[in-house]
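Handout, section 4.2: multi-component inputs.
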Amino acid sequence: MATPESPKGTRITIRHVAADSGVSVAAVSKVLRNAYGVSEALRMNVQASIEKLGYRPSVAARGMRGQTYTVGILLVNIDNPFLPQVIDGIHDKLAPSNYKSMLGIGRARLKLESEMVLSMIDNRMDGLILVAPMMPEKLLARFARQIPMVVIGHHEPTAADFDTINSDDRRGAMLAVQALYDRGYRDIVMFSQEYMKDQQHQVATLREQGFRQAMQDLGIGPGIILRAPEDEGADVEAFRAFLARPDRPRAVFVWSDLHALILLDQAHKAGLRVPEDLAIVGYDNSPVAGMSMVGLSSVEQHGRQLGGMATEALLSRIEGRKTPKHLYVTPEVIARSSV
Amino acid sequence: MATPESPKGTRITIRHVAADSGVSVAAVSKVLRNAYGVSEALRMNVQASIEKLGYRPSVAARGMRGQTYTVGILLVNIDNPFLPQVIDGIHDKLAPSNYKSMLGIGRARLKLESEMVLSMIDNRMDGLILVAPMMPEKLLARFARQIPMVVIGHHEPTAADFDTINSDDRRGAMLAVQALYDRGYRDIVMFSQEYMKDQQHQVATLREQGFRQAMQDLGIGPGIILRAPEDEGADVEAFRAFLARPDRPRAVFVWSDLHALILLDQAHKAGLRVPEDLAIVGYDNSPVAGMSMVGLSSVEQHGRQLGGMATEALLSRIEGRKTPKHLYVTPEVIARSSV
DNA sequence: ACGGAAATGTAGAATGGTCTACGTAGAACG
DNA sequence: CGTTCTACGTAGACCATTCTACATTTCCGT
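Output:
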C-alpha cells in the first residue's frame, strides 16, 4: 500500500512497467484504461509490475491525448454551510469510480470564478461541477461547450449544453411561509439577496417567487421583500435598522442561514424574544442552526443528495450523453424554537 | 476580457500564436515564461497575438516538461471553521503571482489524504500546502522529497525536507488557562482530542502540554485531561456524562471550537448557566463563537496570517530554497460571555 | 573598422502517456 | 485443409509545451 521510493530520483514511467513485465508500452496503457483487447494473463502480469514498481500514471501526460480522470468542483466560497454536504455527496458517488476531484474556490467573485473554470479546462479535467456559481447563463453555456458540465444551485431550466440539479427553491420558500402561517403568523416579510443584474435564475429569485406565491395563496398580502447589502458591516446595520422599526412585522423568512443567523444575533442583542417578538425561518439548515441556544428554523435542501445526483449526471455526460437533464429535489422545513 | 470562441472547435495552441505573430514556437514559450532573451518588441507582438486569439497555455502540456504554475492545497476536511481564514490568507498572497491553486479534501482519513497528495503529485503541481494533515512525519517526509511542501497546523520542528507554519499551540493553551485563572477559576480540566497513535506532533498534544504547564505554573494542580470519542453521537454522550458528574469542575478548556460548541450546547440543554455553573474556553475563534447567544471564549490562531506565511515559504521553496523553516504565530484569547 | 561579448531568436529533442492502424496467432467453419 | 474471423498485442504517430543547444544579430570599446 505504501508508495515505494522511486529508485533513482527519476520518476517511474509506463516504459519502466512495460520493460519489467516484458510487454509493449501500448499494452500497459490498455491495462490502465481497462481498454478492450487485453487477456487476463497480460492484465495480471502488468498489474504485478505496476504494484512492484509503485507506478502511478502522470495525469499531465494523460491529459495531452486522453482523459485525466479528474473532475473539477467549483465552489462559490468556502464558508457557506450548504457546501460540505454537497461535497460529501459528490465524493461518495465518486469514490467507487476511478475519478478524482479537485476543488476551486470562486470567492463569490465573477472574475475569479471564471478564471478558476478556465484553469480547470486548462488542466484538461474531464468534467466540472459548479456549485452555486454567480456567472450568467451565457458564460456557463460557453464553458459547457468546452467541457462536460453540471451546475448545482443555479436555475437554468432551458440550458441545452449542461445539466442543472437544484433544490426546488420556490417550494422551499412556500413551505417556510406555510410553517409560519401554521403557527399563527400573518405579517411576514422576506429578506432576500441584494439585487444584482442577471439574477433571474439565481436561487434567491426563485425563493422570492415562492414567497410571494405563498403569501397570495394564503391571502395574507402581496409579500414584502427587503434586501440587505452584502458587505460585512452594512448587513448588520440594515438588520438593526429593521429591528428598530416601530411597524416591524412579527415574522421573517430569510433567504439563507448565513444572513438569518446575523438577524437572529441582532434580535438577541436588541433584547427581543424569539419567537414571541420575532419569528425567523432561514434556509440551508446549517449545523449551527441546530444548536439549542440558536434553534433557528430552516429549510433543509438535502445537499448530499444534490451532490450525488450531480455526480451521476456528470459521469453519464462524460460518457457521451448530450441531452440535458434538469432535476429537482424537494426541500423540507425543519422547525425549531425560532417559530 | 471575455474568452473568444475557439474558431473551429479545436483548441488554440502555442503554434497558432507563433504563426499569427510570425515568430517561432520557442519564442512564444519564452514570452509566456518571462524567460531571458526576448526583446520588448517581440514580447508586445506575441502578447497581442495571444490576446487576439484568446490563447491559454495547456497546464497538462506544461506539466510534461516545466512548471504548471499550480499549487495544491490539502485540507483535513471541509467543515473546520479554522480553514476559511487560512485559505483566504493563501489566496491573497497567491493572487499577485501567476500561480493558481487547487484544493483537495482529505476527509480526515489517512488513506484518502495520501491519495490526494499523490494525485497532486501526479498532476505535476509545483508545490503543496497541507493544512492540518493527519499523516505521520515519515509519510510527510517521503512526499516532501518529491515536491516542495509546506505544512500548516502540524508540528514537526525537526523536519528537514519541508517547512512548518504553526500557531504556538502550547502558548495558546497557556493563555486560555490564564484567562480562566484571572477570572477566579481554579478547578479547570481540558477536553482534548481522542488519543491516537503517532500524535506526538499533533496540535492537540501541544495544547495539552501547554495546559499542564500553565496549571503547574499557577500551582492549581497537575491538570486533568479528558478525551471524548470523535464519532458523531458518542462525543455528545461523553459530554453529557461529564456535565452530569457531581464533582464536575467549574471550568473547561476545549481543544477545538467544534467540540467546545457541542459541550456548550449540551450545557445549555442541561439547564446549566454559563459561566456561573460552567466556564468554557475553546480554540479557533470560529465565527459562530462570536454570536451573542453563543458567546464562546476562544483562542484566535490568526489563520489568515498562517496561510500567508505558508504561501511565502512555499514560493521561496519552489524558487529553490532547501533549508527548512519552522515558524510560529502567537495566538490570543478572545474573551466572551462564556468566562 | 574589428573582434569579442551580450542579446535575441530558432530548430528540434524530450516529456509520458493515448490512440490508430495493423500484424499475427488461434479458433471456427465449410 | 484452406479461409475467415476474432482476440490479442505492437509500432509509431501524436498531443502542447519546455528546454537545450546553437545560430544570428547587435552592441561596444579600442
